[in-house]
Amino acid sequence: MGKVDGRPEQPERPAVRPEDLRAGHADRDIVLDRLRAAHVEGRLDAEEFDERIQATLAARTYGELDALTSDLPPVSAVPAVAAGAAPAEDPNADFRSGVAAWAAASATTMAIWAISCLALGQFVFPWFLWVAGPWGTVLLVAWIGTRLQGR
User: What pLDDT, on the 0 to 100 scale, is given for residue 92?
Assistant: First the structure.
């Protein structure tokens, strides 16, 4: 073994095929996003979607990741876009997602409160109202405001 600049010469490494290169978190996130879109589009049922999500999280190489989406069309080939029809935007989508978040948070805090009452064996002040009340009031005022604007 010869020396280059006083350092031992490194043995030449064999070339690695692109599909054998190690994938990173960002690469897995891209595949997860595509799988979510395919599930929403109806291309994957719940069971296959779950299997592919698990396989994506366990994938180590680009080849393993590519195999998980190889039978899916590219995102730009979604039928609504391919047919030239732009998907209709729902003006109430943001409001509905806000209501869904409020309902989930309210139900969760109410359940925690109820479990606390049962565990203590006594009624405890319904503190969950401090979460549900103000947030719900803001949503109600926003809803009324949109209805008044629509007159």
Answer: 75
Please check whether residue 39 is in contact with residue 49, taking contact to mean a CB–CB distance below 8 angstroms: yes
For helices 62-69 and 25-41, give the axis angle rounded to 10 degrees. Answer: 10
Closest CA to 35 of 47, 24, 23, 20: 47
The whole-angstrom separation of Cα 113 and Cα 8 is: 68
pLDDT for 81: 47
The angle at the Cα of 150, spanning 149 to 151, to the nearest 5 degrees, equals 95
Regarding pTM above 0.85, the answer is: no
How far apart are the C-alpha atoms of 40 and 34, rounded to whole Å?
10
Per-residue pLDDT at 96: 84
pLDDT in tens, 15-41: 888 888 898 888 888 888 888 888 888
Task: Please say whether the dihedral angle defined by the alpha carbons of residues 96, 102, 108 and 111, taken in this order, is positive or negative.
Answer: negative
Long-range contacts at 136-139 (CB < 8 A, ≥ 24 apart): 136/102, 136/106, 139/95, 139/98, 139/99, 139/102
Q: Name the stretches of the chain with pLDDT < 50.
A: 81-83
Angle, helix 46-58 to helix 62-69, in steps of 10 degrees:
170
